[in-house]
Amino acid sequence: MRRSPSSSTNKRAARNEPHFLVLGIILVVLALLKCADIYLYPVRYHGGTLDPVFRIPMLHLSLGMAGVEIILGAFMLSTMSTNMAAYSSTFLGTAFTLYRWLKTTFTDEGEPCGCLGVASSWSAALRYYQDNVLLTVAVFIFMIGIFALLKETHFSNRGSA
Amino acid sequence: MKVHWTVSALVLPLLLVFALSDCPVDSAISVGGDDGFELQKELLLARHPEMAARLDNDQPWLHTIVTAGLMRFFGEHAAIPRLLSAASTIALLLALGYLSDKCAGALGVVLVGAFYLSCESVTTHALAAMLEVPALSWGVVAATMLIAAERGRKRWPHWITSIILFALALHIKLTAMLVVPGIVAYLIASRGVYRGLFLGIVLGVVCAFLFVCIGLLCPTFSYRSLWGSHMAAESALTIAQAKASSFHWYYLSSQLALVPATTMGVVLGIVRRHPILTFGIVFLTTSIAVAIVHRPWWGYYLVHLYIPMSLLGGVATANVAQILLRGFWKRKSEANEVDMLSQVTAERGSCNWWSLSLLYVATCVALWCGFTLPRWIFEVKNLCRLETADNAIVLRAMRQYQRQTHWCYSSEGAWAFQDGMLVPPELVLLTSKRFLSGSLTIGKVLDIARRYNPEVVLLNRAKLSGMPEWEKWVEADYVLCEQDPVHELWVARRLAPRQLGEHDERLRHLGL
């Protein structure tokens, strides 16, 4: 017999699941990195630079995204249920992946790099591979979200996950 | 419905063929790797087989002889050796597909193919006229035949095919030997120490006999040409040169998804003691050991590591992914026998295994999508945009003198090949190894070039600036007929060539 998504299994706290724990930490770190980037490199954000996809100022978009990420990450590490975490991470992951794909389509960013050997330090590597790292994070959130959602809505009903 | 492993193994190569449909396989001047050396060797052997001994060839002859034969039959097309490399890569993918199907099912077959093809430069080298990829590919195919013999009923046909294929692979390039320890490990893992070693020695002796028999039919077959020249280059290296031409671990950082996947594959192989994974682990260990020890070590040798890494990584990722998908298609009690990690996790009975599996798969897929896939797409796009002979202004000018030219000097053999011009045999293989070992110097190259008195000389401008004696030579006997930012085309005065005009005249000539 099929159980509804709101069964007792889905009321568990997301922080008890390792994948949501890691995802929560990543979201908080990502938000803090965004804030640090805005603080350390203000030139990139001030002066009305528009985001190529949404056509809104980069500063507003980055601050907004940092806010969403830190709230979601904090909730995931505290009170959010697995069910809600699965839905929200699927939504965020899909949006984030789509955004990265659209951004790559709209901007000609030259040769994508796959080798970390040329970077002199971790901060330089992060800056140099920013697009690769963010696409990786986007796909990671999407993968965690979609599989967690499948588990919550389908796997647990078959008694095998 | 169970999909046959050959279908899964051919999905990605077919998609890649579609993606590369715009790639100028025949007219591209140079694809990469040792493209130029091989094309010139094959052209020389197709036209003047009697000059083969003058080549100072430090590699076995089989690939060159076969390709030269095909060139005599189908015409002198660069596509012939390049498509041979592509066919070898498809054979390799089928072999890896068979091996991974036995460990991880259809998903494993697709993942192994995706991991291998997306490794840095693998797609490029799969289309380049090179020895490395065919040799190792057919070596792995031979090993797979031996593994198939152990798993099937009809052993003799598989054993004989395996021995013949391996002897042929060694005659393409000796690097095929890298799979030998893996084969021995497989035989020991599947048959036990004594029976495995006995079979390995018997097959090895027969293979060595066959190797020598084929070698006696080749233009040159000696210890010095096959092995001695490599050792001479290694011993002549200075400390700085050895450091510059050695393997560094950070080269693997271009495979951010494959490294954790391979680690998981090694762990899985050790835990489950599956003979095929044992083969992969020993193959990888041998390749790493050779990479650390061997000098000079070139970037394209990474393919030695990529093959076992892809096998181990693909199998491991497929097994972990099956845990995630298990509940989607079947109940726990219906666990497939190839679902090895599922059995481990079922035995342990821990609820967090699913979460950890999800973290692992998500990490591998995300790293592959974030780092490997964009670089791979870029590589495929670059292959479709390769410079062709028709677009190169220097080659267009060179073509006018094709009929009057007997010899052409060029340090880039691929350029001369595209206009059907032969480079003097002693100067076809201007490899770094020959310069490092001291068997060739710039002075000797000039002496040989003067002796042949080539009608056409194609020089690299950057290299020319540091060599005044070369400048004197070409300015005395040749006329500068064309140039691009990199090359200068000089044609012998006796052919009465048209001299390259002044700047304004050139612009008018170009219609500017």
How would you sum up this structure, described in words?
The complex is a heterodimer of chains A (161) and B (512). Chain A is mostly helical and 161 residues long. Chain A is built from 5 helices and no strands. In chain A, helix 1 (18-40) runs antiparallel to helix 2 and helix 3 (82-106) packs antiparallel against helix 5. The longest helix of chain A has 29 residues, at 130-158. The two termini of chain A are 16 Å apart. Chain B has 512 residues and is mainly alpha-helical. Chain B has a 4-stranded mixed sheet. In chain B, 49% of the residues are buried. The model of chain B has no long low-confidence stretch (mean pLDDT 85). The A-B interface holds A 17-19, 22, 104, 111-117, 129, 132-140, 143-144, 147-148, 150-151, 154-156, 158-161 and B 120, 248, 250-251, 253-256, 324, 326-328, 330-332, 352, 354-356, 358-359, 361-363, 365-367, 369-372, 374-375, 377-378.
Annotation keywords:
heterodimer; A: 161 residues; mainly alpha; 0% strand; globular; disordered N terminus; B: 512 residues; four-stranded mixed beta sheet; 4% strand
Write the layout of secondary structure elements.
The complex is a heterodimer of chains A (161) and B (512).
Chain A: H1 18-40, H2 58-76, H3 82-106, H4 122-128, H5 130-158
Helix pairs in contact in A: 1-2, 3-5
Chain B: H1 5-19, H2 35-47, H3 62-74, H4 79-117, H5 122-125, H6 132-151, H7 155-172, H8 180-191, H9 193-216, H10 223-236, H11 239-244, H12 258-272, H13 275-293, H14 302-329, H15 340-348, H16 352-384, H17 393-399, E1 408-410, H18 413-418, H19 432-437, H20 442-452, E2 456-460, H21 461-464, H22 468-477, E3 478-483, E4 487-492, H23 503-509
Parallel strand pairs in B: 1-2
Antiparallel strand pairs in B: 2-4, 3-4
Helix pairs in contact in B: 1-4, 2-3, 4-6, 4-14, 6-7, 6-8, 7-9, 8-9, 8-13, 12-13, 12-14, 13-14, 14-16
